[in-house]
From TrEMBL:
<keyword id="KW-0732">Signal</keyword>
<dbReference type="InterPro" id="IPR026444">
    <property type="entry name" value="Secre_tail"/>
</dbReference>
<feature type="signal peptide">
    <location>
        <begin position="1"/>
        <end position="19"/>
    </location>
</feature>
<feature type="domain" description="Secretion system C-terminal sorting">
    <location>
        <begin position="306"/>
        <end position="384"/>
    </location>
</feature>
<protein>
    <submittedName>
        <fullName>T9SS C-terminal target domain-containing protein</fullName>
    </submittedName>
</protein>
<dbReference type="Pfam" id="PF18962">
    <property type="entry name" value="Por_Secre_tail"/>
</dbReference>
Length: 388
């Protein structure tokens, strides 16, 4: 069975009417230096701002995971939840949280988008100092495996932020090195590889969009950065400070200098300006989408369906309305590594089936649900996100 799993993990999360509400930004003020203003929703189709979720002036309720209680932070330092130097943001779709880090700090914060409560994840793994620009965390994104990943300017620390048993854990995955083919386009050189943001793809690799417009693909298993090319179609002095994937699979980029947002085709690196003329100052972008997702070649007719794909109550519905489908079906759930974590038989009568399947034993994360006939022929593969 495992030989068929690779294409299963390239399934798309379909766009929906609320896609623009799943695209977020760190916004700043119109100054020459970084001054955090707020976290806000962005319209990824028009490049315009929406609701402000939390600002530098909001009353902050901070809970320390390590101390297991509320804390009062020193607002005169660079290490607090509303620090002016904010430049790394990721959206955690499994828990509907925004995960972020001040640029001059090792602190990791998790903002609940609904309650506005903030959790401080004390981080003893990364080595960020305000005076060392190489150590600053400037890139962050969600990975296809459900974890959050963050990377410093020099590529010397790739952090994995995972949630297990209700607690966030931080791991240092190692140093990212240049691929031998990169030549003068070094990932670790300030003029070619620093700053910017990163996105995840459907194979749990990453693309870093540097401030200079250079794009590098990071092969996570090899901890290697390969130069892909330079974005074309943007102004010469455009500083790429935010990047995130939209519902169409294109990459949206934004600038801290106050400019239009651009949509970039990852295959060609050709950019086109989005229609909004707002020119916001954006330090980072985040979304729920991934690069290189595509629908499986397996039949995904609406006559057979699995819903919801975002599972909040540990129940999914299996629907069959096809007279050609008869007898017993097999439903199998795989985790992101390809491990079989649940299997159940389904019985179709008269080409019809409406049945709920309980996922109560599955932890939060991304899964693939596969429905197959007795012969082994797969009728439907669908990605779901199980949330708390």
């Amino acid at each position: 069975m495992k030989k068929h799993l690779f294409p299963l993990f390239l399934l798309a999360i379909s766009a929906n009417a609320h896609a623009q509400q799943e695209f977020f930004a760190i916004a700043g003020k119109d100054t020459s230096s970084i001054i955090f203003s707020d976290f806000r929703v962005m319209d990824a189709a028009n490049g315009t701002s929406g609701e402000k979720i939390f600002s530098a002036d909001s009353a902050a309720k901070v809970f320390s995971q390590e101390r297991k209680g509320s804390i009062v932070e020193d607002k005169n330092s660079y290490s607090h939840s509303q620090a002016v130097t904010m430049a790394a943001l990721a959206y955690d779709p499994l828990n509907n949280n925004l995960v972020y880090m001040p640029m001059f700090s090792s602190n990791i914060y998790v903002l609940n988008a609904k309650t506005k409560e903030i959790t401080l994840v004390d981080n003893a793994v990364s080595k960020v100092t305000s005076c060392d620009v190489n150590s600053h965390i400037t890139r962050m994104t969600a990975g296809y495996d459900g974890n959050i990943y963050a990377l410093n300017n020099a590529g010397t620390q790739l952090l994995q932020i995972s949630k297990k048993g209700g607690q966030y854990m931080v791991s240092d995955l190692g140093i990212i090195k240049d691929d031998a083919s990169n030549g003068k386009n070094s990932f670790t050189a300030m003029e070619t590889g620093f700053g910017g943001d990163m996105i995840g793809d459907a194979e749990n690799n990453f693309y870093v969009f540097s401030a200079s417009g250079n794009v590098f693909k990071i092969i996570a298993k090899e901890l290697k950065a390969k130069f892909v090319g330079k974005i074309s179609g943007i102004p010469e002095n455009y500083s790429v400070n935010g990047s995130a994937v939209n519902a169409k699979g294109k990459v949206v980029i934004a600038s801290a200098k106050g400019d239009n947002l651009y949509e970039v085709d990852l295959a060609t690196l050709q950019a086109k300006s989005l229609p909004g003329n707002e020119k916001p100052h954006i330090y980072d972008l985040a979304s729920k989408y991934f690069a290189n997702e595509r629908t499986s070649s397996v039949n995904t007719s609406s006559a057979i369906d699995i819903y919801p794909t975002r599972v909040d109550e540990h129940l999914i519905n299996i629907s069959v309305n096809d007279k050609a489908v008869k007898g017993n079906l097999s439903l199998t759930v795989f985790d992101i590594s390809g491990k079989n974590v649940l299997k159940q038989s389904l019985s179709v009568k008269g080409g019809s089936l409406n049945q709920q399947v309980d996922l109560k034993n599955l932890v939060s994360g991304a899964y693939i649900v596969s429905v197959a006939e007795e012969s082994g022929k797969i009728l439907l593969n669908k990605k779901i996100l199980v949330t708390e």
